[in-house]
Structure formats: C-alpha cells, structure tokens
C-alpha cells in the first residue's frame, strides 16, 4: 500500500450511518490518507501492510477523530457590534421592539455600508479563525447586512475572498431579503423587486452565491414575498433555504420544503404540518440554540416531532451581532443538548453529517469513510459525548483539511 500518511492510536467517530455502533464508532482504529482523501479506515488489527519507512505515521494518543465540523448557518461577515442593544434588552426592550425602532439588523446594515472590503475581510478572518480553532473545516456565510446592491455584493465578495484565503471551505448564501431597508420602509414589495430584478442577477452574473435565503417573519418578509424570492432562486439553479418560524408561524417552512429547500432554519414555531412537509421533501431542520439562548426564547423547536418524522437535524451557530454573538461550534454542541435536549450523538451529527446535507456537500464531507475528503479533527477526549459535555478547555489537538494539518 502506498499512502501519504497513516494515523494510529485513535478511535474514530465516523458518523457513518452504515456503521451501526453509536457515532459510527471504530475503536482502536487506523486511518490512511492519499491525495487528500481517506484511502483506508478500520480496526488497527486489520491495517494492511504499508511502507513504514516512507510513510509518516502519526499517533493519536488514544484520542477521538471526528469529521471536521461544519457550521451550516452563520452571518459572520459584518461590521460593528450591538452591545448597546444588549444593554437595552437587559433593561426590558424586546428584540422586535428594537428592530421596529430602526435598530437591530438595520444598525448593522449602517455599519456594513460604511466599512471597506478590507475591514470586513479582516473581521471575517478573525471569526473564521475562532471557528477553525474549534475544529470547523466547512462554514456557510450569508450576506444580508447590505440591503442595497452594492453592499450585498461587497459582503458576498468578502465571503468569497475568505474562502480563497482561508483553509476553511466557505459556502456562500445570498440573503438580500434579510430585512426591509429604511429606504423601502413603506414599500417592501418594491424592495423585493430590487432583490429580484437587480441584486439576484448581479449575484448570479458574478457567481457569488451557492444558495439564496430569506427571513420570513412578521418583522421581515411575508410568505408571498418569500415565495417570490425562493422561486426565482430555484429557477436560476441555486440552492434555497429559509429563516422560518423563528418568532411566529407563517408557514414558511412548508412552502420552502415544497420548493425543495435544503434546509429551514430556527423553526421554534414549526407545527406538525410543517414537519411533515420537511420529511416529504428531505429538507433539513437547522436548529440554532445560540439565538434561542441569547434572545431568551421559551418556545422550543419541535424536536420530538422532527425525530418522529426522521427529519435530519442540523446544529449551527447562527453567529451574528444581534441574536447570536457566539462564535463557537463547541458551545453549540453543548447548547444543542442542554437547551434542546438533543443527544450528544444527534448534536454531533448536526455539525457533521446533517450539516453537510444542508449545504449539499454530503458527497465529500460530513462522515469519515473511504473516498471522502480527509477533513477531520483529533480531540483529546475519552468518549465522543465529551465534545458536547464540557466547554472551555482546548481539546482540539489537530485539524486536517484535505489531508493537510491546518490547526494553529
Ligand atoms: N434571524 C436571526 O436570528 C438573525 N437573522 C435572522 O433573520 C438575526 C440577525 C441580526 O439581528 O443581526
Ligand atoms: Fe440566521
């Protein structure tokens, strides 16, 4: 056998559903890499002979390997912060009240319109580094803090540059319909026209997005407006997804599912009809415990129903300055379990296998098996449940991206 590197003294949480053990685990395992892909994996006792003189062999000190983590929902390119609104909320103002008074998303929009591409890139790079340190190897980044053509394109270009210059793979989502900008305060339909007639064609022309998202909510876009945007995106061949049922139930999830959305995200207010629609279309349910926690929401997403209908559950940070200023993958694993009562295995699947599905990259990442990209992390833990259990001590020892060591 001729391989580029071999890892031994490891346990592997493959997250491969075809391996029946919890976490798809293989204990006392070995894994071999060739040309950035997994070339062999299995119990150490079955490791075929290979040229030990010319092949680097790494020892994992009996730690655990998992697939590289995937954060499938972030808004990590933004300028400014909203610490002042945090203070207002602590004095009793609600997220919706602040948004209606022209703060909220719109205050971040102002900061983004003023910021240069270089400034936004540097802020994005630092945040990507924070996620990468905790094992993230693939991330989704949305626009949505520009709300005019020039600034939306600027944010998307920054996301694209981050993907080019950082080892973390970046999937990009155009979220022009995130909020109604002040210029269109009394005419949101005209803003939707702008999104469809000017922004979306420009985004497509420059090849700046993999997917399109909308914030379907009373304080943002109606069901009919959302459907217009998602239908156009689908027609243009882009993936679609939706911020839906976060603060109320407008039926956005069921509509998006019928259009073939990859995921619907937040979904605290999702009902059984919505869950059924997701299961029929194979749409993922993305849970965002950071926003639930930070906004001190009390309405729980319908976890039991999602399990019952076997809807793939994704867990993501929703990292953004307003509702989830928490730039951490491991904290989300913990909150997914403590707040939403996921099992640690469900939580990890939500940041690996199911997250890959939500981003349409499941053919290459999200589970560890032969032929997949060698994107994996080595953790100094004794059981995979420890990833969700404890937070704050650095247990991420190595990260490999396409077979290259990238951990700083
Ligand atoms: N829902 C959210 O939680 C974020 N966007 C959205 O549509 C919040 C974004 C923000 O407050 O800046
Ligand atoms: Fe979001």
From TrEMBL:
It catalyses: 4-imidazolone-5-propanoate + H2O = N-formimidoyl-L-glutamate. Zn(2+) binds at residues 73, 75, 243, 318. Its EC number is 3.5.2.7. One of its GO terms (biological process) is L-histidine catabolic process to glutamate and formate. GO terms for cellular component: cytoplasm. Pfam families: Amidohydro_1. Residues 65-406 form the Amidohydrolase-related domain. Belongs to the metallo-dependent hydrolases superfamily. HutI family. Catalyzes the hydrolytic cleavage of the carbon-nitrogen bond in imidazolone-5-propanoate to yield N-formimidoyl-L-glutamate. It is the third step in the universal histidine degradation pathway. This is Imidazolonepropionase. The gene is hutI.
